[in-house]
Amino acid sequence: MLLQEQMTEIARRAKIASRGLLRLSADQRNACLNSMADAIDTQSGAIQTENQKDLEFGREWNLSSALLDRLKLTDKRIAGMSQGLREVADLPDPVGRVLNERIRPNGLKLQKVSTPIGVVVIIYESRPNVTADAAGLCLKSGNATILRGGKEAVHSNQIIAKTMVEAAHQQCSEFPLDVIQVIPTTDRQAIPVLLSLTEYIDLCLPRGGEGLIRVVAECSRVPVIKHYKGICHVYVDRDADLNQAAAIAVNAKTQRAGVCNAIETLLIDDSIKETFAPRVVQNLWEQGVEIRGDESLHQVINSQPRPEGAKFEMASEDDWKSEYLDLILSVRIVEDVNAAIEHINTYGSGHSDAIVTKNEETAKLFMSEVDASAVYWNASTRFTDGAEFGMGAEIGISTDKIGARGPMGLEELTSYKWLGYGEGQIRNWSRASPFFMSTADRHCGKGSPLTIDESMSLETARRRTAFIRSRLPESGLFAGQQWKISPTPFELESRLAKDLQKFGRVLLQFYRASDLLYRKSVEGTLPSWIADLLDQGKPNSLIKLQRSEAFKLQTPRVIRPDILLTEEGFSITELDSVPGGIGLIGWLNQTYDQLKQNFGDTEPPIPGESVSSSRKKRPQSLVGGPKGPIEGFRGIFGNYQRIHLVVSDESETYRPEMEWLAAQMSTDDFCSVRSQTFDQFQEGDAVYRFFELFDLENVSNASQVFDLASRQLIQLTPPPKYVVEEKMLFALLWNRNLRKFWRQEIGEGFLRKLQTHIPYSWVVDPSPLPPHAAYPELGLTDWHQLKSLSQKERRLILKISGFASEAWGSRGVYLGSDLSTEDWSQAVDQAIQRFANNPYILQRFAKPKTVASHWFDFEAQRLQPMTGRVRLCPYYFVHGKGDQARAELGGCLATVCPADKKIIHGMRDAILTPCVGWERWGESLSSRRPT
Fold first, then answer.
1. Is the distance from CB of 373 to CB of 405 less than 8 angstroms?
2. What is the band of 118 on the pLDDT scale with cuts at 50, 70, 90?
3. Contacts for 552 with CB less than 8 Å, ≥ 6 apart
């Protein structure tokens, strides 16, 4: 077969395979990667046998010791290949991520979604472990790959690829065999032929020396991401810690000399040349490094004793431009940091450069002005690596400025496309003409209408809010609490309404898995630290009760997340398993439905029309419908004849709404609100526990209720399981050591949904870390370091985890960016000191977006605008038992607080309304009534 035909056939098959790969789910691709890793471990002996053939040829071709080292596959490197594949499998799926989302004024929804690139050609030299790294990353990111290694590694590359493909196909019969191909010929003409096939090839990534990369870039007709050289530098400033500087310089050169992130030039500030240069040169000589220095360095070290075999040469102009990839180092004395920056920007390759200094101002100048893909302060350049950056295995390093730059991992192997979701929109004939402006153009679904004067008359607003106020129960809904009344409900964007409808089953599964996590830890099939952490600070009697078989796998039957709307979507800040507000949302849904029956919907007018103009209005529906909250709450008790709502003194504020709710559910004694001293429970009763577990010593009938429930004489919800009341569950959800458990118990899709909407969380555990370890995502090695973060860096929430009175409401919550350094430091100290009894968690803070709303001021007789931030509280009611249980959305409460309020909570300053969606969403939300 001619070379042109051979390359065309390989590329054509890769293109077909790339499309077949799109049909594999993320779970299937991950399973293939893990099978590949297992196969590489199993075939280690065979791989080393083939690698030995390459090493023998390499010695015949007189390859340098550094290149032979790059070529050799030891047991450790083979284990590293398989481990790299497993780490890639554990990384989040880079495909299908929503990178951007927006809704245009005409209602057209646009999403920017990550996609595979397609077919990626990777050309590399010597290092056969690149075969596994590159193929694994391409597979994870949904790309087919064509691999062209150096002729010196042909046997190693072929067996590694063959082992991977066979393992993947055995794991998944749908795996396309041509997803990973190795060019079978060593003919150099294969490269320009392959890279001319633009109809099949989407991208080329060359890895190797400058000569290879230039040849590829010059001959390719497809896009190339490249770096020509790795001319990396370390500059030792006059204010450096010299011990630290010597260690960094030696590491950056000698830890592995034949790689692109090893330094080729060391720059030393003139003011420290006498003290530092002789010392560091001596250290480098001891490691076998040949020094090529300038005249100033030569004068300093000329009289210095040299170890046997130590080499020094005067540096030429070419040395500053050279990538040695060997134990050779250029050393230059420079006047100051500005001279160092000038040298680096003149001779460097834009790869990796470092400064060693204690002077922050100098470091910031260096990091700002050095033009490189990675710039370090007091660290070795050897960290420019995908694995070291936490990206898993890397595909290469890019020094290009457009597109990928620096270590290339999964995200850099994806492109994106825009997805548009419409409802019949067409491009307007005239944007200026009000005739063509749709309802969606006038109202973007971001709360109540933006222009109050146009949305309704003052009299209409007064009548609507007066109607709402007149429907309040005589005793109110909350003891001594009021809120601002809006004449219109809060409108949900349609996609959000759909997401909320489905999210109940995700949260129910999370609760089930959390309960199982604790039980497996207690039983010893999962690490004991999980149960130890969750049990911390709890009384032994409650621990024993929680572990009772009577409550095995029981979860709360009312699930209410607290959701903040953000510019990116929404963020779940916590889950409340003993929520208030059930009666409130029941009353709101009922009242606003009556409001609609009496007054209809109110929308802003079409521009150019008067408020009184006759027009067809687009109907809205309450989330859950007018009876959704009441019927949903009633449904959690099944066929029980008597229901007791036990309200503790701590929760006394909520008693009026519970009494209203009980009255709506029955006209006799079927459902009653009871105090914490009531003790007339009977077999067959159902009890709703409206008190927190931390308050048990004040609730005198709690022991009776728990005893009856543990003997299964009554039904109790929520069950007495503090695990489901712990905010620590969010931190455990993000714990990398538990990722396999979560994926197995809730599935990849549900896990991705939860981690999309639950902010990254940590347990503030003051136990000391090993000296080389750091808290993930934070880079801190000690929780006390939180105190030194800048205000901008303190976009973090510190909150007590659950089993404490401060966990009720918004007490015990500290937003770092809104506190002074002193107050934040006190909060951090408190969290650390209280760990043994009341652990705290730390969460990323997603700032809520602003919405436009309004409320009626009865004193001023005005409709007042409010720019606010909103918290949504959807109420999910769990109906059915065991595997048949389903979490149904019964209603959704919106709390709109003034935008300058620090914590979105409370009543007097807030607008409380039910939520509505357009009719097609409203129908789907209200049609699934409990039976």
1. yes
2. very high
3. 519
Residue type, 233: H
Q: How is residue 485 written in tokens?
A: 């009344």
Question: Rounded distance, CA 879 to CA 847, Å?
Answer: 34
| pLDDT recorded at residue 810 | 62
Interval 516-533: pLDDT, tens:
999 999 999 999 999 999
Q: What single letter denotes the amino acid at residue 700?
A: S
Query: Residue 260: how many CA atoms within 13 Å on its side-chain side?
Result: 28
Strand duo 796-800 + 813-815: pairing: antiparallel
Residue 762 gets which letter from DSSP? Answer: E
> What one-character-per-residue DSSP string does 328-395 give?
EEEEEEESSHHHHHHHHHHH--SSEEEEE-S-HHHHHHHHHH--SSEEEESS-GGG-STTTTTSSS--
Q: Name the residue with tokens 């065979």.
A: 46
Split at pLDDT 50, 70, 90, the class of 567 is confident
Strand partners, 484: 911
- Which residues, in sequence order, are CB contacts of 252 under 8 Å at separation 6+? 232, 234, 262, 263, 354, 380, 381, 382
- Contact (CB, 8 A) for 707 and 680: no
What percent helix, strand, coil does the chain show, rounded to 5?
40, 20, 35
pLDDT band at 811 (very low <50, low <70, confident <90, very high): low
The candidate with the shortest Cα–Cα distance to 30, out of 392, 297, 539, 523, is 392
Question: What pLDDT, on the 0 to 100 scale, is given for residue 918?
Answer: 56
- Element holding 786 (H helix, E strand): none
pLDDT for residue 606: 32
DSSP string of 460-509? HHHHHHHHHHHTS-TT-SSTT---BPPSSPEEPPHHHHHHHHHHHHHHHH
Residue 620: name the closest of 869, 925, 930, 928 by CA: 925
- Residue type at position 605: P
Interatomic CA distance for residues 566 and 752, integer angstroms: 18
> Between helices 26-42 and 44-60, what is the axis angle to 10°?
70
What's the mean pLDDT when you consider all of the chain? 86
**Number of helices followed by number of strands (H, E) in the chain:** 28, 32
Other CB atoms within a 10 A radius of the CB of residue 825 amount to: 15
Cα distance between residue 407 and residue 412, in whole Å: 9
Other CB atoms within 10 Å distance of the CB of residue 879: 20
| pLDDT of residue 435 exceeding 50 | no
Mean pLDDT over 776-792 rounds to: 90
Q: Assign 401 to helix, strand or coil.
A: coil
Angle between helices 154-171 and 26-42 (to 10 degrees): 130
- Report residue 314 as tokens: 């005067």
According to DSSP, the residues that pair with 419 across neighbouring strands are 111
> Which amino acid, 466?
A
Q: Which residues contact 893 (CB under 8 A, 6 or more apart)?
A: 581, 584, 585, 588, 872, 873, 874, 875, 912, 913, 914, 915
On the question of pLDDT at 227 being above 90, the answer is no
Q: Which helix (H) or strand (E) holds 93?
A: none
H or E element at residue 536: none
- Separation of alpha carbons 196 and 430, rounded Å: 46
- Residues 576-587: b if buried by 16+ CB within 10 A, e if exposed: bbbbbbbbbbbb
- Report the DSSP pairing between strands 886-898 and 911-918: antiparallel
Q: Which residues of 89-124 are buried (b: 16+ CB within 10 A; e: fewer)?
A: bbbbbbbebeeeeebeebbebebebbbbbbbbbbbb
Predicted TM-score (pTM) of this structure: 0.54
